[in-house]
Amino acid sequence: MRDKMKILHMYDGHERVFPGEGSVPSVVYQIAKHTAKKGLDVTVLERRWRGTNYREEIERIKFERIDLKICSEISNKEIVYTLAKKPSGLLRLVLDRAHFALKVNKYLSKNDFDIIHVHLPFASNVLINLKRKLRVKMIYTAHVGEEKVRFKLGSCKDAPLPLRFFSPDLYLMKRVKKSVVLNEPLRLKLIGKGIKAESIVTIPNGVDVSNFGSDVGENIRNKYRAEKRKTMIMFAGSITPRKGVDYLVKAAEMLKGEDIIFLLVGNPNLDKEFTEKIKEFIRTKGLEENVKLAGFVPYEDLKILYSVCDIFVLPSLEEGSPIALTEALATGKPLIGTSVGGTPLMIKDGWNGFLIEPANERQLAEKIKYLIDDPEERKRMSENSRKLAEEEFDWIKVTERYLEVYEEILDGNQEEIC
Q1: What's the CA gap between 335 and 378, in Å, rounded?
Q2: Of 4, 11, 2, 24, nearest to 113 (Cα)?
């Protein structure tokens, strides 16, 4: 591995690149941190958030930030898909991303990098048309959960109008040197959509194993109204249909007589209408004492909640490589998830948890009940989860796979020059 290979991570999202700011920016941070530890010269280029400096260094990562005035300067304040559903919001997004790309183009005219690693398709598509020579050194990681919408793999009737006819992800993947997806089933589907097999690789999300599993706070359950005497079933993810939350609360209804509590952690504002339906279901079924919606939880609290829960569930209808599941895995918890996307990589059915069919609340309730009734089985699965996290999903090991892709791009470009 070459020392001081210069890597630029470009992130035009609405969240600061930092742990706990969201799934994608957390992943970007971890890749940058662990490659910097390997001796690479790593820079993250993002928008400047209110109260942050234009330049700073954190854990060997150089941060460069640019002013953009069209969208909010406050991390996590604006939600992309909410904006895109309205013509005025969509116009702001287009102008914002175009402005970002123009500023990055100017930055790259003064700064040279061996690899440009992009994580969202919007500004990147503008950039590769402003400066076509960047394509040969660019790698795109598709942090995608909504595969049908983003890659036109199914019905897109609920997608913002432009995405029904055009896939920014596919456009970018067909033009950059390498693309990374988070699970093998998606890679095979994309090859079927015309992406060259040699240009696309599978690398799942990782987890900082050393950061999970030891912090236990006695008062954290009280803080989130999760009684200590009850077995705690935890979910973490956005409160959206894609995450299967409606099936989770239906399973909770089936288990109403059990001495358990469901704690649902996650952003309730991505689909407010859906969240209200979930709240109404909880009220009408008398589940207020059994199901608690915690909302957005600070990252330090989230890590402790993983530690104090008894079972972690993720009943998603589609997934890429869910960060919440890797974090629960690293904390050493028995897991229940659906057989979609990258979830089967993290749940070995019967070994560290259970895989169930998507949209099957009865199976979900049955597996939860099984684990509630068998503490020894929970203990065995917990130990296996931690072992799997250490052996296959530690960021140290996942980063090695990214380094191999960087080397391949650099070697290929040097051969072309020669």
Answers
A1: 9
A2: 4
The distance from CA 224 to its chain's CA centroid, rounded to whole angstroms, is 24
- Element housing 388 (H / E): helix 375-388
Tell whether 64 and 183 lie within a shared domain.
yes
Identify the DSSP state of 67. -
Domain count, the chain: 2
Q: What is the pTM of this model?
A: 0.86
Tokens of 197: 């097999």
Is 122 inside any structural domain? Answer: yes
Residue indicated by tokens 């569930």: 313
C-alpha radius of gyration, the chain, whole number: 22
* Structure tokens given for 327: 């974090």
Residue 358 — φ and ψ, nearest 5°? -65, 150
Do 326 and 408 share a structural domain? no
* Predicted confidence (pLDDT) per residue in 12-65, tens digit: 999 999 988 888 999 999 999 999 999 999 999 999 999 999 999 999 999 999
Residue indicated by tokens 């897991």: 335
- Domain containing residue 331: 210-393
| Alpha-carbon torsion angle 241, 244, 246, 250, nearest 10 | 170
55-58 and 61-66: which strand pairing?
Answer: antiparallel
User: pLDDT tier at 157 (50, 70, 90 boundaries)?
Assistant: low
SS3 state at 208 = coil
1 located within any domain:
no
20 in any annotated domain: yes
CATH number at residue 292: 3.40.50.2000
- 3-state class of 198 per DSSP? helix
152 band by pLDDT with thresholds 50, 70 and 90: low
361 and 290 within one domain: yes
* CA proximity to 1, closest of 36, 39, 33: 39
* pLDDT band, very low/low/confident/very high, at 145 (cuts 50, 70, 90): low
The pLDDT assigned to 225 comes to 73
Phi, psi of 103 (to 5 degrees): -70, -40
| Distance (Å, whole) CA 183 – CA 143 | 10
Report d(CA 304, CA 38) in Å as an integer. Answer: 29
Beta-strand pair 138-141/41-47: unpaired
Interacting residues of 277 by C-beta distance below 8 A, sequence separation 6+: 246
What per-residue confidence (pLDDT) applies to 161?
58
